[in-house]
Amino acid sequence: MLRWSVPQVLANYTGGKIMRIFPKVFKTAMEKAQLPLSEMARVAGVSARQIRYWEKKGYITSHQAQKNQNHKFNFFSLLKVMEIKEFLDEGYTLQAAVEKQRERQNILRSVRRLINERLLGVEEVAAYQEGVEINLGPLDNDETKIVVAQVKAGQPVKLILKKHQPMD
Questions:
Q1: In the CATH hierarchy, which fold is given to the domain comprising 33-115?
Q2: Which of 102, 104, 149, 154 is the most exposed place for a label (fewest CB within 10 A)?
Q3: HTH merR-type domain: from which residue to which, for each copy (predicted)?
Q4: Residue 65: C-alpha distances to residues 38, 68, 71 (Å)
């Protein structure tokens, strides 16, 4: 049986680098990488005219180094355009698609927060047939028990309560 804390798992996954900075590094890279309008339109599967309109309406933003230069878009804008297009393809109006995209972003922020605040450790369990147990921490109303997610390939994820045993 193998047992790791989250920092150990992340360090093993990344060759020993401290992963607390990874989200910041990833975010910086996503913000700094710049796509021209034509590439943004091609990748997202929308017209350049649509992107200009969405930018004018304030749904997405671009960067322009100097006046009269082409607008450049970061990867966050690309993802936003692709999500809006997905909702448009499902039949939503533009305004509704933008709102659905914002709702999705709020959900993702909440999931990131859950992971950051509650993911306390990962344990590989041989008896669990090549699965892992993810320690989600103690119950707020009973710190003698922890919530554990059991994850096994091809099976639904199970949430169980276990007696709290500090990790070595």
A1: Multidrug-efflux Transporter Regulator; Chain: A; Domain 2 (1.10.1660)
A2: 154
A3: 35-104
A4: 17, 9, 8
Dist. CA 40–CA 47, nearest whole Å: 9
Asked whether the whole model's pTM tops 0.70, one would answer no
Are 153 and 139 in contact by the 8 Å Cβ rule? The answer is: no
Where do you find CATH 1.10.1660.10 in the chain?
A: 33-115
Neighbours of 118 (CB within 10 A): 13
Q: What's the pLDDT at 125?
A: 59
Question: Which amino acid, 5?
Answer: S
Token pair, residue 82, equals 């692709």
Output the CA–CA distances (angstroms, integers) from residue 56 to 15, 111, 122, 125, in the order listed: 44, 31, 46, 53
Residue 39 and residue 74 in contact, taking contact as beta carbons nearer than 8 Å:
no
Q: Where are the beta strands (DSSP E) in the chain?
A: 2-5, 35-36, 72-73, 121-125, 131-139, 142-151, 158-163
Give the CA distances from residue 20 to residues 7, 41, 42, 76, 116, in Å, rounded to whole numbers and listed in that order.
8, 34, 34, 21, 10
